[in-house]
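chain below, 277 aa
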Amino acid sequence: MTKNLDLTYDSADDQPEGDIILHSAADFEGMRKAGKLAAEVLDFITPHVNVGVTTEHLDKLCHDFIIDHKAIPAPLNYKGFPKSICTSINHVVCHGIPGEKKLENGDIINIDITVILDGWHGDTSRMFFVGDKVPTKARLLVDATYESMMRGIEVVKPGATLGDIGHAIQTYAEGKRFSVVRDFCGHGIGKIFHCAPSILHYGTAGKGLKLKKGMFFTIEPMINAGDWQVKVLSDGWTAVTKDRSLSAQFEHTLAVTDTGYEIFTLSPKGYTKPPYQ
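prediction:
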């Protein structure tokens, strides 16, 4: 689940280092378990993402899977959010609320999962193709979004900066003639769902807070086929592209290690981006 950008510091340069939690080896173990379960939920739901299925049904399946694994769906009742997962279809950027809408052939959809397991949060999302008529431009957008996330992750190491992450994502996405959403960002995570630092998906290399071992955060770029501007609908949650262009997102939860990074939310089945085999 994404974080609305805190406008008290809207650049990577402004974030106070004192707000950052540096976690212990025991904390890594807790996050490994939570991250794995979140990824398992997405693995589980994959064969159910089909033409004619409602997002309400997907929500119920995920909710039951999470509860059956002795965890809590973090989005449910979080600041009033009414469902256990987010389902964002086509021009919905993030925080789509599951409901009676049926998936149609050619749709693309992001499913965003956050579980709380033994107090730790595992947060991840993936894109899915619905049916066999997904347009080429939508497929290219999804591919570029996944690759931009991985480019951001690959620069993570002690001494790198938040600006390095944003620059890697922005450079790749804009190089493919897509745009990077500014209004939402990745976030620190652990025992707290959303905390410092805010991970902007655009920025300047070498600028901003330096990364240190023990930081936990998400990287979750939202990439649009058209312009980057978004608006939030009257439900107070659903964010859509202003120009109604397609949007895509992927998300991993990760940690800064001694020499680089560890992704907590890798798919046990090896799923990365669609189509999932």
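The mean pLDDT is 95. The longest strand covers residues 108-117.
thats it, cya
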